[in-house]
Design a protein that fits this description.
The protein contains 7 helices and 2 strands. By secondary structure, it is mainly alpha-helical. Helix 2 crosses helix 3, helix 2 packs across helix 4 and helix 3 crosses helix 4. The N terminus is likely disordered.
Length: 122
């Protein structure tokens, strides 16, 4: 049985839920296993579609398992977030302005961490 409410959730939200299940597992999962881990009533075909899209984006890799595939994240959550930040930065032609606004909006604590990282102390 499929919960129509879950089927209508935004793709990004579903992708995030699938990624969370893969990270928590720590081992390759088939679409059926991901479906079980999510426990949301999503159809297996929906989970397979999400995993295929994540594979096409290079976010997960897959290995043959029986007639299908088992999927595993390519990066941890922090690596994926950093990749998204780079993607957003690459979309704008004025990188300096984007970086300046990003830094201007950092909390004092985050600014300190960034300074330490840039100085090689992190």
């Amino acid at each position: 049985m499929t919960d129509a409410r879950d089927e209508r959730r935004p793709a990004g939200e579903l992708e995030a839920a699938v990624m969370a299940a893969l990270w928590a597992a720590g081992a390759p999962l088939t679409p059926g296993q991901v479906q079980t881990e999510l426990g949301t009533g999503l159809a297996r075909t929906t989970v397979t579609t999400i995993l295929t899209r994540l594979h096409e984006k290079g976010v997960v890799s897959r290995e043959r398992q029986g007639r299908g595939y088992a999927y595993v994240p390519v990066q941890d959550a922090q690596g994926l977030t950093a990749r998204r930040m780079h993607t957003e930065l690459d979309r704008d032609t004025d990188r300096e302005a984007v970086l300046a606004r990003f830094v201007a909006q950092l909390s004092p604590d985050d600014e300190q961490v960034l300074r330490q990282l840039l100085d090689g102390d992190g």
